[in-house]
Fold:
Amino acid sequence: MAKGRGRVGRGEPNFDVPEGRAGDPADLDLRLSRADRAGGGVARGGGSGSKGARKAPVQALRKAPRRARRSILGRLVYFGLVLGLWAVIGIAGLVAYHASQLPPIDQLAVPKRPPNIAILASDGSLLANRGETGGRVVSIRELPPYLPRAFVAIEDRRFYSHLGVDPVGIARAVAQNVTRRGVSQGGSTLTQQLAKNLFLTPERSASRKIQEAILALWLEHTYTKDEILELYLNRVYFGAGAYGVEAAAQRYFGKPAKAVTLAEAAMLGGLVQAPSRLAPNRNLPAAQARAAQVLAAMQELGFAKPADAKLALANPARPAGARGGGSANYVADLVMDVLDDFLPKFESDIVIATTVDTGLQAAGEKALVDELNQKGARYNVAQGALVSLRPDGAIRALVGGRDYAQSQFNRATTAKRQPGSSFKPFVYLAAVEHGLTPDSVRDDAPISIKGWNPENYSRDYRGPVTLRDALALSLNTVAVRLGQEVGPKTVVQTAQRLGIASPLQANGSIALGTSEVTPLELVGAYAAFANGGTGVIPYVIASVKGADGKLLYKRKDAGLGRVIDANAVSMMNAMMHETFVTGTAKKAEVPGWDLAGKTGTSQDFRDAWFVGYSSTLVTGVWLGNDDGESTKKVSGGNLPGEIWKAYMTVALKGQSPAMLPGANRWRNRAPAEPAATGSAPGGLIGALLGEPQAAAPPPRTAARHADASRGPSQDDRNFLEKLFGVGE
Structure:
């Protein structure tokens, strides 16, 4: 490195400049300092012209770069502060504006949750929930700890540390969404989601997100974390009409939320991201995959032990069917239809206890659906209904159709169809009340009423027959003759007295069941035969309570009073019992039980009925097509009878058989009365062959011969069945 010495005498300093550092400002400052000391102020002295001129460039070299740098940095800081201030002002203004669109903070309140209606079976188990939410409110204290933690783990892992809005979570969500090239994770906290559900619309906009954040901060200020989580769990939507974790647990797993397993809790926690897509009853693989993600998050956060998570992964949750089958929804619909009659207004959750037995409901649904699945296509019949009630009118099972998911139309309560011959007991009851008995005789022969010529199902005629046989074999001509004897208006009044509420046409064909009725009212009318003569009003609601257990309604004994004389009941039970012995209901007999009932088929096989009863249960079955299309010869004695027997075999199992009211009084038949035509009845075979018949006792004497011969032997009856077939 070359060195030199300054020439002080000349006032022109010379500097030792290291190689490569000539332009270094620090070296320049150092050299200037040295020069000042060496020159003793010479640099500052001298002539005002030359020395001052030499000093100015040096000072410029030393100060200009620093000032330039400080000026640029200062400006940047200044503009940054200004922009930041304006940003704060802008954000504050934006927040203030959107806050002004909300109700005043001091007037904000969590909207009241719509009341839930829990509908219970007779044993206290849940049949269905109704209302806008689909489930009752549950306290977080009722739930197993892992259930709320599942939602925190997958939806908002920083829930217990943020203030309602989570910047860290938002940043993480943005980063993940960018790296995955799509929206894979949202940044909303549970509090924000709750705010949206409680106060805002589902629209996606910047304005709504700002309002969501404002409301989330208010919620965090007003409620504790557990209270917010409880509100969330009771309001969030889980799909399938289920709002709240209780509704979801019942809907998907058939159990209360407090009873769900870890695997089920994980599935529920994963559902809220996309309820429609992840519903386990619609897309089980996707629901289970999402639940696995929830379990992994729970294990990572220490919310679930590794062994428990592993067990849950090995046994993933699966949806369960509702108790009582899907047909329990038909019961729930009936409850909602009649609830206003007993409890017009309520603002909080209520619990309705019904008379329905879940076991019988499931048995009725199975009997109906199995029969239609096996034989529906062959017989061209698509729909059916089943109603079963106690003799006091309490509904034990009600199936309104083949599949509630496919059709919510309740055929048991709403569909009005022609009952056919199942209406004939009202005709015979009117005749009995006018003095006839089961052993009274009428002529089974062609009849014409103003150009109308009704025929038997078999299109054959038996001549003089007893009412007992005529009803058991469902002879149309005898029913029409009886209807004409007592008068169509009397028949209508008799049916209405027993509980038929649908409009009935008082004409000749009423005897053959041409006026339409619903299955529920027809079965309810038959209950008077089963209970000894008391008219009933079918009912399904036993009591109503508030969520706090307060009794709001309790059914009292109510009915139509006595509608049939005890002796008439005895005669009707004897005649309808005969349908199970020798008539159209033989195939439906349940061994060991005293049964009675009637089959029915409408014109062109559009409707097929079987209504029968024991001393403990009255059950009716209807089959047909909703559009009225004819079936392929479905009659009351075949498919409906088979369904009735399948159901009643289950329903009566374990009960002690009992006789029907007054059954013994008219079981043994007496000598018959003379026919209205004046012919002497005698033996049925002889009458059919045209043989002369012996004279019979005068009318109303049959009761005196209750222990006499029962008339035609079983061989005679078998012969008649082979000769003419079984009628409807």
In short: The first strand starts at residue 117 and ends at 120.
